[in-house]
Structure to design on (874 residues):
């Protein structure tokens, strides 16, 4: 008898215009002691299934037919049974540990409340049990920390508390919806290890929903690949990752950036199942004509010298330019140089100051001290004002969030045309039109898309529009701030290919910012590792990966989830 | 053609919400009828109450048509000067609506410009602007309007006063309404300012004016539109209050408030219709605008719509 059995599950969302089928004919089983991974692109119905198991589908969604069985008890649409089972037999770990604990209650109260709801225990016993649970998930000084509020824990610690809550009533099944997506690599590793350990020790069934194939490779026994609400393939993890059969699974596996080698371009799978290697080489001809031919001279393009940035929230009442020794330095004494034609990677966990450096270079944020030089021209130093205007148009940026980086009230045409008009005041209508066409062609979009608004496009397409806009000013330096972290793997591969093509054809210099080491490895010639605003290590990309010197770099490289670990 | 346009409107979320909300349909219909009537007052109203030739004192105090002594030529009766109630109300609502719209546009202009610049530029400028709005909000609207009116009376000569009265009124109401706009605009600007498309525009090098008014402003129009609608009802009521107190428009061009004030004198001597109909008319007008504003707030805010 299986722990969890799902048969012919159909879930649909009825909206005014259409009925969206979020899952159709989903069948799978889960045994005790097994970790099942559900992967798929965003919108493929992964989370819907998890929510259906605990009957937490938001209206207007509903289970239209099908059976969900736990230990042979039917659950679907039966609120009474579900109330007893939710929390008792099924534990749930949410994506964002920042919001899944109530900030007004002590950890103690939240744990004890959950335990006493489901188990008949006295307050003292529940407290004892809570302390044991916290120890089990690896929180030190548990009897002291249990008196703390959620905000006194770090992100990773909070996720441990959430896991403690999930296992507090000795459930048989744990559902973890993107449990490590919001966490840094080293903490992700610890959390996944913890989940694996608990599975073995308590003989649990675990469902992990994720988009990260590395996580799948390192933790799961079985994998389900979903697309448009349909299971396209399910198999044990090793077989699926080494010999994927369906187009979707192949596309997912092939687009994952390899962690152990550098490849020229990502292979892509077209919908009919053939491998394609896209290239925009011939599309850039027109652009090169208008830009003039550029050559890589390898000269120094950008120089940062001892840049420090302190975010001071007392800027109004307290105007002294003294540097407080205690102040948190978002960027601390960072110096590096960027040479023409290269791609420099900035890697670091959240809060390491990567984005702040990008903002300083683009002039969005003023450094507290230090010097900034572009093309041997000083943009900022301790004496002069910020002269970022001297580099306007030469430095452009591609942003992380494709959903907020395009003005929703502008048509795509106007988004791309605006910088063109700004830099070429006398441009004729015909030339403007032609330039817009050239740019949208390079970005790999159809010309029809020019008359539409950004909300009509997917994340990947929006990112392409962003690239077209960035190229409109004829930049020499392109800063990419996590350009693919909001995208699905297969889309990520396309965008990274596009960026590589553009760089090769147009001889751009790139500063590539990411927390994702495999991506950095594929994109960059040289890498800078940042931690808490300080540079740990700078080296050639391949040397850094093969032979990391700094302790922190070693840790990062060892702990990143590797899809190759299973092959 | 019309069907096509209708279908397209129905297809949008706001259109759908509109055609499925009885309140929205009724209130907007009522409002547009009143609006059109007052706009084409010369065509709609049977008499021109401001033309001395058409007014006869002999007709004064004629009750409504269904009462004893009612006259078929005066549907809602007449006032103390023999003016047709229905016509004076139509003409009166014209004054009320002009003052309402003009003052709200004035307040919006001032509030939005100050709000966007305060939110975007920040620093000391923001602090100064926002403290001024805080101070302004502590002064009740009526008091503010009375103050402006008082100053205007002292500054403008008596003969000019009646002509200028409507402008004074617009200024007085507008100046007391702008802090609402400034606050909402600033708050929305602070949200928009941190979005990446604004950063992208800054990196391109666009000027702050273009970023504020071409990029940010169109994205924050929705909340501004909602408070403008609710503010319009408030402005019309404020105007009526001021006119009722005798500091609004002059009696020669009466607004709804002025009409209510006149009728108030006769309320207890039996001629109830002189104050009753303008009062009902004002309530219907203000209510329809308010309901429209309420619907708009719900329809434009998807977070409220879900539940």
């Amino acid at each position: 008898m299986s722990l969890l059995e799902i048969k012919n599950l159909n879930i649909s969302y009825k909206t005014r215009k259409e009925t969206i089928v979020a899952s159709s004919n989903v069948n799978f089983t889960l045994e005790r002691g097994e970790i099942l991974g559900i992967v798929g692109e965003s919108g493929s119905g992964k989370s819907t299934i998890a929510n259906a198991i605990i009957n937490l589908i938001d209206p207007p969604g509903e289970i239209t037919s099908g059976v969900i069985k736990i230990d042979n008890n039917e659950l679907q649409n039966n609120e009474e049974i579900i109330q007893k089972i939710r929390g008792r037999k099924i534990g749930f770990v949410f994506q964002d540990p920042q919001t899944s604990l109530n900030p007004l209650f002590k950890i103690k109260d939240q744990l004890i409340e959950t335990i006493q709801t489901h188990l008949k225990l006295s307050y003292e016993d529940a407290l004892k049990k809570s302390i044991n649970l916290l120890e089990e998930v690896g929180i030190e000084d548990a009897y002291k920390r249990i008196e703390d509020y959620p905000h006194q824990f770090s992100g990773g610690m909070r996720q441990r508390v959430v896991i403690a809550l999930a296992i507090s009533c000795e459930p048989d099944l744990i559902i973890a919806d993107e449990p490590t997506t919001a966490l840094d690599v080293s903490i992700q590793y610890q959390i996944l290890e913890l989940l694996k350990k608990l599975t073995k020790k308590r003989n649990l069934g675990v469902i992990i929903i994720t988009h990260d194939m590395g996580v799948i490779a390192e933790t799961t026994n079985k994998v389900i690949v979903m697309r448009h609400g349909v299971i396209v393939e399910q198999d044990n993890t090793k077989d699926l990752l080494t010999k994927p059969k369906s187009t979707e699974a192949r596309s997912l596996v092939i687009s994952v950036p390899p962690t152990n080698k550098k490849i020229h371009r990502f292979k892509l799978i077209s919908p009919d199942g053939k491998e394609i290697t896209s290239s925009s080489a011939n599309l850039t001809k027109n652009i090169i004509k208008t830009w003039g031919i550029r050559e890589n001279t390898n000269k120094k393009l950008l120089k940062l010298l001892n840049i420090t940035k302190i975010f001071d929230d007392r800027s109004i009442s307290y105007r002294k330019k003294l540097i407080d020794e205690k102040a948190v330095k978002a960027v601390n004494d960072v110096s590096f140089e960027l040479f023409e034609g290269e791609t420099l990677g900035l890697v670091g966990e959240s809060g390491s100051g990567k984005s702040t450096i990008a903002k300083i270079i683009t002039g969005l944020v003023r450094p507290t001290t230090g010097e900034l030089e572009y093309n041997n021209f000083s943009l900022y130093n301790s004496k002069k004002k910020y002269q970022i205007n001297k580099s306007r148009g030469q430095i452009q940026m591609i942003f992380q969030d494709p959903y907020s980086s395009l003005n929703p009230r502008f048509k795509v045409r106007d988004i791309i045309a605006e910088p063109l008009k700004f830099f070429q005041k006398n441009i004729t209508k015909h030339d403007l039109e032609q330039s817009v066409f050239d740019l949208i062609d390079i970005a790999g979009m159809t010309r029809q898309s020019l008359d539409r608004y950004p909300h009509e496009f997917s994340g990947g397409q929006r990112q392409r529009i962003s690239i077209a806009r960035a190229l409109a000013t004829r930049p020499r330096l392109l800063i990419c701030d996590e350009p693919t972290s909001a995208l699905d793997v297969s889309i990520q591969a396309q965008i990274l290919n596009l960026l590589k093509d553009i760089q090769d054809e147009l001889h751009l210099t790139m500063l590539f910012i990411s927390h994702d080491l495999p991506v950095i490895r594929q994109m960059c010639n040289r890498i800078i590792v940042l931690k808490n605003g300080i540079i740990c290590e700078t080296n050639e990309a391949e040397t850094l990966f093969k032979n990391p010197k700094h302790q922190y770099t070693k840790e990062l490289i060892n702990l990143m989830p590797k899809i190759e670990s299973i092959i | 053609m019309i069907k096509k346009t209708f279908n397209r409107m129905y297809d949008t979320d706001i259109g759908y919400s509109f055609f499925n909300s009885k309140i929205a349909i009724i209130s907007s219909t009522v409002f547009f009828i009143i609006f059109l009537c007052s706009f084409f007052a010369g065509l709609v109203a049977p008499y021109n109450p401001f033309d001395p030739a058409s007014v006869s004192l002999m007709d004064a105090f004629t009750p409504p048509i269904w009462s004893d002594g009612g006259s078929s030529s005066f549907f809602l009766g007449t006032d103390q000067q023999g003016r047709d109630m229905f016509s004076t109300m139509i003409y009166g609502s014209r004054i009320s609506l002009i003052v309402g719209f003009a003052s709200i546009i004035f307040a919006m202009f001032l509030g939005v410009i100050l709000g966007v610049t305060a939110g975007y530029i920040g620093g000391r400028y923001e602090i100064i602007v926002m403290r001024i709005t805080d101070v302004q909000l502590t002064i009740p609207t009526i008091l503010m309007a009375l103050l402006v009116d008082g100053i205007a009376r002292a500054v403008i000569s008596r003969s000019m006063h009646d002509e200028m009265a409507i402008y004074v009124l617009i200024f007085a109401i507008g100046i007391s309404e702008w802090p609402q706009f400034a606050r909402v605009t600033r708050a929305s600007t602070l949200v928009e300012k941190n979005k990446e498309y604004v950063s992208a525009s800054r990196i391109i090098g666009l000027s702050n004016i273009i970023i504020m008014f071409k990029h940010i402003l169109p994205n924050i129009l929705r909340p501004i539109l909602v408070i403008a609608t609710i503010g319009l009802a408030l402005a019309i009521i404020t105007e009526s209050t001021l006119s009722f107190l005798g500091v609004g428009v002059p009696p020669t061009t009466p607004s709804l408030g002025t009409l209510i004030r006149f009728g108030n004198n006769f309320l207890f001597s039996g001629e109830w219709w002189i104050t009753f109909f303008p009062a009902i008319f004002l309530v219907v007008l203000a209510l329809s605008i308010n309901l429209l504003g309420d619907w708009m707030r719900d329809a434009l805010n998807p977070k409220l719509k879900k539940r």
User: Anything to note?
Assistant: Chain B has a mean pLDDT of 85. Residues 85-121 of chain B form the longest helix (37 residues).
